[in-house]
């Protein structure tokens, strides 16, 4: 799929250096499903080594269990190819897969680069079904979500963020205890909502949207950038400020590409690109419930108010 060159919103630019990451997540959301296990480089998402496919089940955990042996064999095979290339063996002697890996990386490459790539293979399970279900859940919620975001002077495009967080599933719960369509943590929930043994407003999509809008607005007020406000929704404002200071730049792409903080892992690094991918997918649904299509004068006013 060819990515649009122009951003969907002046608030959320898509820098060229992030295009490959956005495209990767669009493919995870629309092309690869629960039975597809994509082996790729952790840092360079344009490098996809292989796809292990499992049929006969739509259960996410069951598919992962069935795929595990073949995934590990494929990982070991590509690790061996990369290590062999690092030793200076010509790719022609490694068959089609060896030639493809060599071409994918644009080699010849330094041995240390290839050895690092051998340790950097990651597996991503497809998300197509989750996104399709999420789109169905999003449609009846969208008018209320957009109304709340407008009232809090938060860009309407942030209505796509629950797709990344939970696929708009109000019952979603993370291992860290985040709950609801906006995946609000217990501490944030207690600050803005009623969270107790008897009642948890984080599961209420409307109340949770009120809380998320307040958090996102506060993130923007602290960081002065809507892309950084999105990253901070996952990584926290204190840590994003530290990342900004470490790289000496306010540009979201500089932080994503250059920051190597210990806690800035794969999920945090990919939060903004995956949001942009979700926005491209869900944008028509947002427009359906927008009083009028965005125009340059309105966008300029919002930026000044922001």
Would you mind describing this structure in some detail?
- The protein is mainly α.
- Helices cover 57% and strands 6% of the residues.
- The protein has 14 helices and 3 strands.
- Strands 2-1-3 form a 3-stranded antiparallel sheet, with helices on one face.
- Helix 1 packs across helix 5 and helix 5 crosses helix 8.
- The longest helix has 27 residues.
- The protein is globular, with a radius of gyration of 21 Å.
- The relative contact order is 0.13.
Total helix count?
A: 14
- The overall pLDDT average reads 92
Sum up the overall morphology in one term.
Answer: globular
- The secondary structure category is mainly alpha
- Report the major sheet: 3 strands, antiparallel
Low-confidence stretches: 1-6
Radius of gyration: 21 Å
Distance between the termini: 33 Å
Strand content: 5-15%
Q: Which strand order do you get reading across the main beta sheet?
A: 2-1-3
Task: Give a brief outline of the structure.
The protein contains 14 helices and 3 strands. It is mainly α.
Defining traits:
mainly alpha; 306 residues; 14 helices
Give the SSE map.
Blueprint: H1 19-30, E1 36-41, E2 48-53, H2 60-86, H3 95-104, H4 111-118, E3 121-125, H5 128-151, H6 161-166, H7 186-192, H8 205-223, H9 226-235, H10 237-247, H11 252-258, H12 266-269, H13 271-288, H14 296-305
Antiparallel strand pairs: 1-2, 1-3
Helix pairs in contact: 1-5, 1-13, 2-3, 2-4, 5-8, 8-9, 9-10
